[in-house]
Specification:
536 residues; alpha/beta; 7-stranded parallel β-sheet; binds glutamine
Length: 536
């Protein structure tokens, strides 16, 4: 097998241009040509991982099978490629420095002055190369967070320079930049791109391919200009026009021949053609819905569209599967507290109560559960959403008025959701929750048994609190049953209501496992239930 090739994806001019989507699309195209690939994100911030970050900072925290709390771009990688990622696929400056400082304390560098070059850059290169060697991939695509020119990015760009120098054509750089359209001049402007490439050149890195994000098509003369000023052949200037859905991007990149250009640069054969037939089928279903429904997503980060990224994408996969357009309405749980459920939730065909932490807006979430339960509206509660459903049932059906989760009300006389025993002694916040994939046994004669069609499933977790088994009999006698259990520790993972068209609460996060190739069965069935609700 050929040696692993390394493709770095850098960004210029502005953040949020979609490096994650370009990386995922490139990976998809190379996979479709029969190459093996993996994608990695290097994040220049100093947090060891994004697990301790507020969603307002960088959006959702994505959890991998092995329990790494990672950047949301890893979600895109998995959704596009259907290849699982792991801790190795997301490295931050904090993690790099932690490793180097630990080594220094152990005495591994004895006698040496530990410096950014070569020690930090060596550790960056090690983290990149380790992915290639461990997984034996044809390609490792490494996305560098932020934009070139940021102080924080410097050691990463330096590591790229060194790798290019060591590997020659075995290492290339795809630079994603922005070509603004000036309406007053009616012109696309290339100057910001020229400057951003110049910034890279100052660090000794010549990008090999320039992907130009733009609202308008790049004409031939713009491509020539970029080619001339940025020192790349014209075929290496790739247009990335705004798309109606991120899932169009692999198709657009195939038309623009991004993969061909990459293969040319790394001197690999271009004798196949990326077959995206299944992908195109998915797009066709997504874009030609026969029906339309409205789903309310109740949470407390509604101002920020990336806070519930994986849930939104899982709904998109499920909507394509059902050929049904789904309008997701973000509903702030605090507004429910102020305006009431009828004002905000009536007319919805399904209600999803989101994961989350802490007290703010919790009563609004519980009110949303009552509304869904009483009005027989399909309900999906995820993690904190499931915990709210358990509290709601205790209060309104079992008559335990003061029931709560001890996360919110530590002295509740009725702790139906309680901290897991092994969590009690933990003081440190970073990476200490119950994280990653755990098996779950599905009980017979439950709704989820018909949805999953499997007895033993595996789903990913991120929580400290759990259903309190002390109350299980009360629940089951009154029609809310534990439909899925982690047998080893007898942890309830799924609760469902029997006398209801569709009411499921899950302690895990099904959204992390939904991909274009494998839409998640829970979301698919939830949307189907929403369609049935609409049609009476
Ligand atoms: N805060 C809850 C817990 O820690 C739920 C977490 C979540 O929704 N991810 O158990």
């Amino acid at each position: 097998m050929a040696k692993t090739k390394y493709i770095f994806v850098t960004g210029g001019v502005s953040s949020s241009l979609g490096k994650g989507i370009i990386s995922s699309s490139l990976s998809k195209l190379l996979l479709a040509r029969g190459y093996s690939t993996t994608i990695q994100k290097l994040d220049p911030y100093i947090n060891v991982d994004p697990g301790t970050l507020n969603p307002y900072e960088h959006g959702e925290c994505y959890v991998t099978e092995d329990g790494a709390e990672t950047d949301l771009d890893l979600g895109h990688y998995e959704r596009f490629t259907n290849v699982p990622t792991s801790q190795d696929n997301n490295v931050t400056t904090g993690r790099i420095y932690q490793t180097v400082i630990d080594k220094e304390r152990r005495g591994d560098y004895l006698g040496e002055t530990v410096q950014v070059i070569p020690h930090i850059t060596d550790e960056i290169k090690r983290c990149v190369k380790v992915l290639g060697t461990r997984g034996n991939y044809d390609f490792v695509i490494t996305e560098i967070g932020g934009t070139v020119g940021d102080i924080e990015s410097l050691p990463y760009i330096e590591a790229v320079r060194q790798m290019k120098n060591e590997m020659g054509p075995g290492c290339i750089v795809v630079h994603l930049t922005y070509i603004p359209y000036l309406a007053a001049a009616q012109e696309l402007k290339t100057k910001p791109t020229q400057h951003s490439v110049k910034t890279m050149l100052e660090s000794g890195v010549q990008p090999d391919i320039i992907v130009c994000r733009s609202e308008k098509h790049l004409n031939d003369s713009i491509k020539s200009k970029i080619s001339l000023f940025c020192n790349v052949p014209k075929t290496a200037v790739i247009e990335s026009i705004d798309a109606t859905t991120i899932y169009d991007v692999p198709i657009l990149m195939r038309e623009e021949q991004l993969d061909v250009e990459v293969l040319k640069k790394v001197k690999m054969p271009i004798d196949s053609y990326p077959d995206l037939a299944r992908w195109e089928k998915f797009l066709k279903r997504l874009k030609n819905p026969a029906e339309k429904i409205r789903i309310g997503l109740v949470g407390k980060y509604v101002e920020l569209k990336d806070a519930y990224k994986s849930i939104n994408e899982a709904i998109i996969h499920a909507s394509a599967e059902n050929e049904c357009a789904v309008k997701v309405e973000l509903i702030h749980s605090e507004s429910i507290e102020q305006k009431g459920t009828a004002a905000l939730l009536s007319g919805l065909n399904g209600i999803l109560v989101a994961p989350g932490f802490g007290e703010r807006g919790i009563e609004g979430k519980i009110m949303a559960v009552t509304y869904a339960r009483e009005n027989k509206i399909p309900f999906l509660g995820i993690c904190l959403g499931m915990q709210c459903a358990v509290v709601e049932f205790a209060r309104n059906i079992l008559g335990f008025e003061k029931a709560h989760s001890t996360e919110i009300f530590p002295d509740t006389p009725c702790p139906v959701i309680d901290i897991m025993p092994e969590q009690k002694e933990i003081d440190e916040k970073g990476g200490t929750m119950r994280l990653g994939a755990y098996p779950c046994h599905i009980k017979n004669d439950t709704r989820v048994a018909t949805i999953y069609r499997e007895k033993n499933i595996s789903e990913r977790h991120r929580h400290r609190y759990e259903f309190n088994n002390h109350y299980l009999l009360d629940y089951e006698k009154n029609g809310m049953v534990a439909a899925g259990v982690y047998l080893k520790e007898n942890l309830v993972e799924i609760m469902e209501l029997q006398d209801h068209p569709w009411f499921v609460g899950v302690q895990f996060h099904p959204e992390y496992k939904s991909t274009v190739a494998n839409p998640h069965p829970l979301f698919v069935d939830f949307i189907k239930a929403g369609m049935e609700q609409k049609n009476g």
